[in-house]
Design a protein that fits this description.
Strand order of the largest sheet: 3-2-1-4-5-6-7-8
CATH architecture of the largest domain: 3-Layer(aba) Sandwich
Order of helices and strands: EHEHHEEHEHEHEHEHHHHEHEEHEHE
CATH superfamily of the largest domain: NAD(P)-binding Rossmann-like Domain
Number of helices: 14
Bound molecules: ligand SAJ
Largest sheet: 8 strands, mixed
Number of domains: 2
Radius of gyration: 23 Å
Length: about 400
């Protein structure tokens, strides 16, 4: 590919794809790169492989304008944006961050990068990663390459799944540069579509800011989840309790749930814990409290189910939160799977935002409509507070044992 692009975005997932598309609709020539051929093909047809309200319209517009093309390999560009996953290794590896995708994406730039290029890390990353990508790139370019010839910044995304396209434009952004010049260049670039404030800082502070935001939310959800356990023990309605406590002018308790899902809040705090294990005691404990919550829900269901001979359990919702179809790291799926493993009863699953039973639950649970599941159920387990469930007539829940992990009607 000989054409020179304004921007080359590596990773066409939940962050890379909207970012590449919005730049393209603002007139930038964008190359989107993904290692999965089916993703590249889908996007080049103007279609999408992930679900997010209105993303299909944006991508179609970007591709039809001729400004967005997808490919398997990067090509020369003024700016490279890295938006690949940064998962963590599981408990056995002490939840250490896995930077292999960031490293591979960075090294793949070596054949095309030119002095003067800006390299932006958007992926949520442990403190020090922007310095590391500089190191990997220079290593790949060889001994003649000079660090000062390339500009590096971290510009974390903060968009909320379900509201991504609005938040992409209206959220304030933080740009942390390895140099002032790099940060200024990135600011000018993001002003192409971002209408909010763009704050400049150094790369390490920007990395930590992103991790801090998600840890703040995790700690606050853990407080709500812990309250729900305490209330279960003391026979208090946690939703009523929180509603009343929140009438205090300086109290704003979040909502308990079946656990914390998604691929951000349940992951990012571990990056802080891994970097400062002795200091990050509250952050670690919050993670543990939230990780424990699905087990509490399972124990509650088992206890209620023991009253029935052949219990039928209607499980309402599989997504990781309300009104999205994203099933990744969803506590609801973990709970349904474990209920099956423990043989707790017949499991009827309802998920209005997904077309069929996810592969992981095939043979373990039955796909059902809300009406059928509620008619057949002895126990109704509310796992997600989707708007479709809020609209169900209350009489359908009468005579059932209801375990409402989300406070559907609160
Ligand atoms: N949850 C609760 N109780 C609550 C709020 C959330 O149990 O009161 C649960 C949700 O059900 C879900 C999980 O927490 O399982 C996470 O949901 P969320 O809506 O809090 O956050 P995400 O993961 O969709 O998006 C977060 C956002 N971060 C913050 O709000 C600080 C978003 O702005 C980030 O861009 C995103 O992480 C990310 O990509 O890092």
């Amino acid at each position: 590919m000989s054409q020179k692009f304004d921007i080359c975005v590596l990773g066409l997932g939940y962050i890379g794809l909207p970012t590449a598309s919005i730049f393209a609709t603002k007139g930038k020539k964008v190359l989107g790169v993904d290692v999965v051929p089916a993703v590249v093909e889908t996007i080049n047809q103007g279609r999408i492989h992930i679900q997010e309200p209105d993303l299909d319209i944006l991508v179609r517009a970007a591709v039809q304008s001729g400004n967005l093309t997808a490919a398997l390999k990067p090509a020369p560009a003024d700016t490279f944006i890295i938006a690949v996953p940064t998962p963590f290794q599981h408990a056995s590896a002490n939840y250490l961050p896995d930077l292999s995708y960031v490293e591979a994406a960075t090294r793949s730039l070596a054949p095309v990068v030119q002095p003067g290029n800006l390299i932006v890390l958007e992926s949520t990353s442990p403190v020090g990663t922007t310095e590391q990508i500089q190191g990997w790139l220079l290593d790949e370019l060889g001994p003649t390459a000079r660090a000062e010839d390339y500009l590096f910044v971290h510009c974390p995304e903060r968009i909320l799944p379900g509201q991504m396209l609005r938040e992409l434009v209206t959220n304030d952004r933080i740009v942390g540069g390895l140099s002032e010049q790099a940060a200024q260049r990135a600011k000018a670039l993001y002003e192409t579509f971002c209408t909010a404030e763009i704050y400049l800082t150094d790369a390490r502070t920007a990395e930590m800011a992103k991790l801090t935001e998600n840890s703040f939310r995790d700690v606050n959800i853990a407080f709500a989840n812990e309250l729900s356990l305490i209330c279960d023990r003391l026979g208090i309605d946690v939703w009523e309790l929180i509603r009343l406590a929140n009438r205090h002018p300086r109290v704003n308790i979040l909502r308990p749930g079946p656990g914390v899902g998604g691929h951000c809040i349940a992951v990012d705090p571990w990056f802080i814990v891994a970097a400062a294990p002795e200091e990050a005691r509250l952050i670690r404990t919050a993670r543990e409290v939230n990780n424990h919550k699905p087990h509490h829900v399972i124990a509650t269901v088992k206890q209620k189910a023991s009253r029935f001979k052949d219990p039928v359990i209607a499980c309402l919702g599989l997504a990781f939160k309300a009104d999205v179809d994203d099933l990744r790291e969803s506590p609801a799926i973990e709970i349904v799977e474990q209920l099956h493993r423990e043989g707790v009863g017949r499991l009827l699953v309802v998920e209005p935002n997904v077309r069929e039973l996810p592969q992981r639950l095939v043979g373990k649970a039955e796909w059902s409509s809300a009406e059928e599941a509620l008619a057949a159920a002895d126990i109704v387990l509310v796992l997600v507070d989707h708007r479709q469930f809020k609209g169900l007539p209350r009489r359908l829940f009468d005579q059932r044992v209801v375990i409402d992990t989300r406070g559907l009607w609160s």
